[in-house]
Amino acid sequence: MTTVQLAGTRQLGDKQVFRMGYGAMQLAGPGVFGPPDNPEQAIEVLRLAIEQGINHIDTSDFYGPHITNQLIRQALHPYKKELCLVTKVSARRDDKGNWIPAMSESELTRAVEENLENLGLDQLDVVNLRSMYDVHKPAEGSLEGPLTTLLNLQSRGLIRHIGLSNVTPTQIKEALALTPVACVQNYYNLAERSDDALIDWLEQRNIPYVPYFPLGGFTPLQSDELSAVASELSASPMQVALAWLLQRSPNILLIPGTSKPAHLLANIDAAKLQLPQAYIERLNAL
Ligand SMILES: NC(=O)c1ccc[n+]([C@@H]2O[C@H](COP(=O)([O-])OP(=O)(O)OC[C@H]3O[C@@H](n4cnc5c(N)ncnc54)[C@H](OP(=O)(O)O)[C@@H]3O)[C@@H](O)[C@H]2O)c1
């Protein structure tokens, strides 16, 4: 794979990563809980991603819980030195799979230790503090306490870089007063564009923006206009949605999630799709 085929590169922490990455959440079982129905296929997807040149994988120990990280370790350890593994903390799962906020000092410390253990690492490349003040909508609330915990863990050498997820501009500014921010990972795609201004603000500050649910997440994007554009460009709607994100800002890094090798390859191919301006305008109007 050449740089162009994976949409060029961007600095993430202290690694240079391709803008086309991979999100591992879909590798756990249904509802991101328990083991996958097809563990061999999960391993295949991870190895295929690396074979295709992907060097940015997004994960968390609360996927499964533990399962996704254990699959990553089984498939890819020892890791290539250029691979940037980004994880996130501040939630835990109860025995029914509910997502419970876990932002106290002891919970965050345990989460970092469990990520290290399950990934088989001595240090995590990037840890995103995932705000849990609201589930999929950034909501105000100070992050100083949990960030201080992560900074202490960083000073112990357990974390290399700190990022943020599900955060507001105010929380990003609060964090920037305490630490460099390696990346911001929020909910954003063709149909969910609340972060448009934030994306431009982060681009000016050279802080990578990583949209989660780039394809719509659990309910993948569907629209007649998206399908029409895709058909005119001989691409799939999912590929158009990814190409639109890549063209939205050079500062965007992609982590589309899939449990299927064929979907992984199709998503990677989206990096080669150049959307003419007239199509971008049609998609912007969705
Ligand atoms: N920070 C956060 O709070 C947060 C929240 C959610 C997710 N994330 C991260 O963001 C990553 C991406 O989000 P996501 O995986 O939830 O959602 P997504 O990338 O928007 O979409 C994944 C869904 O799209 C399907 N899909 C993927 N490629 C496809 C293709 N080429 N054709 C048709 N369907 C396709 C997948 O099903 P198949 O498995 O069948 O392909 C899955 O149902 C996650 O993996 C995770 O690492 C972070």
Automatic annotation (TrEMBL):
Q: Which cellular component appears as one GO term in the record?
A: cytoplasm
Q: Which keywords does the record carry?
A: Oxidoreductase
Record keyword Oxidoreductase present: yes
Ranges of residues in domain NADP-dependent oxidoreductase = 19-285
The keyword Oxidoreductase appears for this protein: yes
Any one Gene Ontology MF annotation carried by this entry is: oxidoreductase activity
Q: Name one Pfam family in it.
A: Aldo_ket_red
Q: Which Gene3D superfamilies match?
A: NADP-dependent oxidoreductase domain
Q: Which PANTHER family match?
A: AFLATOXIN B1 ALDEHYDE REDUCTASE, ALDO-KETO REDUCTASE YAKC [NADP(+)]
Designated name of the protein: Oxidoreductase
Q: Which species is the source of this protein?
A: Mangrovibacter phragmitis
